[in-house]
Amino acid sequence: MLKAGVLGAGHLGKIHLRLLEQSEKYELVGFYDASEEQANAIVKEFGYKLFNSAEALIESVDMVDIVTPTFAHFETAKQAIKAGKHVFIEKPITNTVDEAEELIKLAAEYKVKGQVGHVERFNPAYTAVVDKIENPMFIEAHRLAEFNPRGTDVPVVLDLMIHDIDAILNVVHSDVKQISASGVSVISETPDIANARIEFENGCVANLTASRISLKNMRKARFFQRDAYISVDFYEKKCEVVKMKDAPEEPDDFAMILQNAEGIKKQIYFDNPDIAANNAILDELNTFAEAIQHNTDPIVTLTHGKKALEVALQVINCF
Question: Which of 45, 62, 93, 239 has the fewest beta carbons closer than 10 A?
Answer without folding.
Answer: 45
